[in-house]
Amino acid sequence: MARPPFWLMRQAGRYLPEYRAARADAGSFLDLCYNPKLAEEVTLQPLRRYGMDAAILFADILLIPHALGQPLAYREGEGPVLDPIRSAAELSKLDVTRIHETLAPVYETVSRLSQSIPQSCTLIGFAGAPWTVATYMVEGRGSKDYAHTKHWIYSDPDGFGELMEILVASTTEYLLRQVAAGAEVIQIFDTWAGVLPDDAFRKWAIEPTRRIVEGLRARHPDLPVIGFPKGVGANIIDYVKETGVTAVSLDTGTPLHWAAQEVQSLVPVQGNLDPLLLVEGGAAMERRIAEILETLGKRPFIFNLGHGIVPQTPPENVARLAALIRGE
To answer: Is residue 4 in some structural domain?
Structure first.
């Protein structure tokens, strides 16, 4: 059986000492995202170590709200913090006219990477899905209950829909410009899709993503798009059928045999090793990698994690994972 291709979400990041050095040189996380030379460098770092089959652009899903004019800071121990927007009246704070001027360094990074990654490597561009990006814009940070966002969708769905319209249009153009700069595949991260109630999932997760995919395909009919609706359980079936994604990424909680029968019969799948098992390494990690390969490897499949690499991951465990995928 031929080995599957592999890459790892957040494969460029704080678990690598060379990344930490580049981050220190940049001055701040946002400065790193907007520095094409350093963003290119940190994107290439894991490829040099582990030889992944894909490079994913180093950027962040919150660059779009930042480019729209929403103040954003990354605070040590807190993560991203934004000045929240919680009503339709506050949407006037957003400025759509200069978004691509702000994001121009990201497009330059993509262009540089299209020339510098190995020829055998695929370049993945990405963005956050409108729902997930909106939760950060409304809550002002990560949240446990998403109370402010849910209050808005229940009390003023039309007003919240205006925010989503801005995000759908901005995200579609952002991704089109990444493709124009050299991205060969797109991944759309809907990290917080799983917090949506079942009766709201289609409206706020499926439909915005479907419109983005439609907008991308209008310009690039054969563009591969990977969706990642994290934590949505069986709703992933409707997501696959209705968004038009080419492939879907499975989170850690997705049962392997169910995914092989119900999801992989529809589209190629990507996933889904637990990032914390990658931290532990050893025999337990090796057994799970073998199980994932055995269960999902018979059909089109990309090996990945069920979410991003965490900072405490030992680099040698990633090296062992890469060796196992290659059958070494």
So the answer is: no
